[in-house]
Amino acid sequence: MNPKRALPLMLGWLLLALLVLAAPAQAQQASGSSEPPAYSTLADLLENQETRQELIDQLRGMAGDVAESAPGEAASAAPSLPRQLAELTSRVASDIGSQLEAIASAIGGMFASDLESTFDMGVFISAAVNLGLVILATFVLFIVVRRLARPLFTGISQWSLNGRGLTPILRLIICVALAAVVDVLIVSLAYLGGNLIATFAIGQTGELSTQASLFLNAFLVIELLKAGVRMLFASRYDGLRLLPISSEEAAYWNRWIARLIGLVGYGLMVVVPLVTAYLSPAVGKGLGTLIMVGAFLYAVVVVLKNRKRLRDAFNAKAHQTTMAASRVSLQLFARTWHLFALAYFTMVLVLTLTRPEDALPFVLFATLKTIGAVVMGLLLSSFLTQTIGRRIRLSDDLRRKLPLLEPRLNSYVPNALRVIRTVIVVLIIMVVLNAWGAFDLAAWYASEVGRNLVGKLVSVATILAIALMVWLALASLIEHKLNPDTGGGMPSARAQTLLSLFRNALAIALVTMTAMIVLAEIGINIGPLIAGAGVLGLAIGFGAQKLVQDIITGIFIQVENAMNTGDVVTVGGITGTAEKLNIRSVGIRDLSGTYHLVPFSSVDTVSNYMRGFGNHVGEYGIAYRENIDAAIEQLQLAFEDLKASDEHGRKLLAPLDVAGVIALADSSVNIRVIIKTTPGDQWAVGRAYNRLVKLRFDEAGIEIPFPHTTLYFGQDKAGSAPPANLRVMQQDFTIDGSPAGQPKFDGGATDDRFIPDRKGANSASKRINPRHEQVDPENRKPSGGDVDEP
């Protein structure tokens, strides 16, 4: 970032921090800076008669003035918000200016005065040497103990990365907690060793100097803070790092934060008290201010330096997330994270300048609460993702019984996780605001509004969870009944249709009831909604009579079991298979593959070919010269062949029913037979039986007559007919008895009509001249030279 652009930005953040934090600061100052009243002065005033009377007169005069100016002051009792902010900003700025002026004057006076009169160099050197020895011994002991504990940290890290039996996030939490305990023990041992060394080995034996005590206390606090930072940014052990970042990134941020903590901690907790004690309180106060300003500038430089790098990292993380809200939030945070960081450090600086007594503890605890809330939220979200966010795998037996339960659960769990993550984010925001004094979480929850809101949210969540469990239970029970591998075996078509309709009706009823209960729980009066729904339903009933007729007819069709899914029916003049059946219409797929949607209001008759059994009614014609009993016998033999078939034998329900001769037609004697089959198989059985009848009739020589054509050539007035010239195309003998293979031809025109013999064999192919009157039925040579010799 350009320094010229950074300067106005920093000034803006400084002003914003002053406005935001001035009210809590003044409130805490007012509550914490109450001085004991001057009881002795008041007592002296009351004991003296003159001063007592004077005080009474002054109080009466002040009461009169207040009474006279009450109307005007009442109007101006509550100043406007801009005025309050202006006064507050002016007060804070004047406090900071006066503080800096006092520091500068104190430092100038210190150097202008004689230091030798107030500063003992020998005592200072002795104290500095003793303190240096304590610092050196404490840090050496701390480093040695940490090196000895490295194998332990390595083992814990390896188990976190490669352990079995627990989810990765749970192993990580356990291992980080164990490592934190070990780290705290190491710091405690170093602190205890430093105390022993400072008490018995350095300085006067048996006494702990003030300087050593200041350093050891600061060492304990600072190293514990660094241990907390190492929980987040463990650079050497990948299995002990809570944040999912690389080792290089962890090392960078761990080093930067450790430097900042050491600079501020040791500076304010060790250097400033020592300077205050040995030099001057004003110098110590000024040094503390300089330390905070230096830490602020150092933090600002680091933030601006890493602005683009962290923005790219957050954007990459946003592209990996699946939730739209999380993706948008991460992208927005990627653009503005440096602003939040600058606001944080600016706020710390302002608090340090305006509240030097309690600024550091307040900022420390607020920061720890913020980091703890964010880390706990991230860990909880990761734990939920790894435990229930993965694809749910049911057992093979349960998957066989309830095939749709697993995909249904896998569709519900991501939505539930989104809701839980949203709740976690809201809780984190509330805890963070509470940590910084912007929101009193305990007071809000203790209020009636907070209790009611939390109670309603819990009630709504409970209602939704119960409704979801009821739906899962009932839907799974219906699937169990519909599954042919479980329940009572293969369900009937009626059961399939009714259970499917019941499942849809159950879903509609459950959604409606749940919505009504939730609305009533959150305080919405559902009485008008129910009344409005009734009026709307009545209006729809009058306006959509056709729809009502569809539904009522559909209900009765289902109750009477007129048809089910998979039945072959004739509905509304359309014959086909019922593929889809609901409360309003039926979907029919005909033989050509066309899908028809027939509303029940147009259905007056339902013809179902799939009820109980089916019949193949066959009518077979034989020639008049054939024996009827022999033909019936062949029909029986064809049925026996059908019954012996592996494919169609199991479909026959009764012996062949021969109805007998049903008609003496023009060219055939018709015999009817009836074959009783399983429902829906009558067409396949009929096709197979027709084939067998044809084979049996051919084998027995029984003629199945077919239409013949008789040609009439006409006569003239004398009663005679012109000759009919015949042309023999191919036959085994000639008309005039000549050897075969020597056909006779005429020279006239012929047509191409083919006349078979009586048996239908192609023994003679003839071409008939339409000019001839008749054809000799005995195939003899006509007289009168009708056939020309070649």
Helix content: 55-70%
The gyration radius over C-alpha positions equals: 53 Å
Mean pLDDT across the residues is: 75
State the total count of DSSP E strands. Answer: 10
Global morphology: elongated
Low-confidence stretches: 1-38, 70-78, 113-117, 733-738, 740-790
Number of helices: 24
Distance N to C terminus: 119 Å
| Helix/strand class | alpha+beta
Strand percentage: 5-15%
Q: Strand count, sense and closure of the main sheet?
A: 5 strands, antiparallel
Order of adjacent strands in the largest pleated sheet = 4-3-2-1-5
How would you portray this structure in words?
It is a multi-pass membrane protein. It is found in: Cell membrane. It holds the Pfam family MS_channel_3rd. The strands form 3 sheets. The protein has a 5-stranded antiparallel sheet with strand order 4-3-2-1-5. Helix 1 packs across helix 14 and helix 8 runs antiparallel to helix 9. It is elongated. It is 64% helix and 8% strand. The N terminus and C terminus are likely disordered. With 790 residues, the protein is α+β, with helices and mostly antiparallel strands. It has 24 helices and 10 strands.
